[in-house]
Amino acid sequence: MGTAAGAFSGLFGVGGGTVIVPFLVFWLGYGEREATGTSLAAIVIIAAAAAGLQGAYGHVHVDKALLVGVPAVGGVVLGTFVQQRIHTEWINFTFAILLVAVAIGLIAQ
Questions:
Q1: Around 39, how many Cα atoms within 13 Å sit in the side-chain half-sphere?
Q2: What is the pTM of this model?
Q3: What are the residue ranges spanned by the domains of the chain?
Q4: Phi-psi label, residue 30: left if phi above 0, alpha if psi -120 to 50, beta otherwise
């Protein structure tokens, strides 16, 4: 699971939510909230390594990363607040819709 998440992160810039959460839920029987929290903790390590390696190749624009990352902290706080107050069935359903929409968007390119 960790290797797959790392490979997807290095190749596509994704890995945490799109790879780790489904593995934790389906393979290890985690609840959605526990899988999300565990995935977020792992993302810190994965993102730091991937950003460092991409930076070594000159592919990181720190100013643009800050422009996206700093406001995203507000989204994290809001998303976590909402997640704790809705049923896990809705979390699963909306996450599945997101994955399907992303897959369709990628195929359509």
A1: 23
A2: 0.72
A3: 2-108
A4: beta
Counting Cα atoms < 13 Å in the Cβ hemisphere of 33 gives: 10
Rounded to the nearest 5 percent, the helix, strand and coil shares of the chain are 85, 0, 15
Helix axes 62-83, 32-56, angle to 10 degrees: 180
CB-based burial, 6-42: b 16+ in 10 Å, e otherwise: bebbeeeeebbbbbbbbbbbeeeebebeebbebbeeb
The pLDDT value recorded for residue 16 is: 67
Residues of the chain with pLDDT under 70: 13, 15-16
pLDDT the model gives residue 34: 92
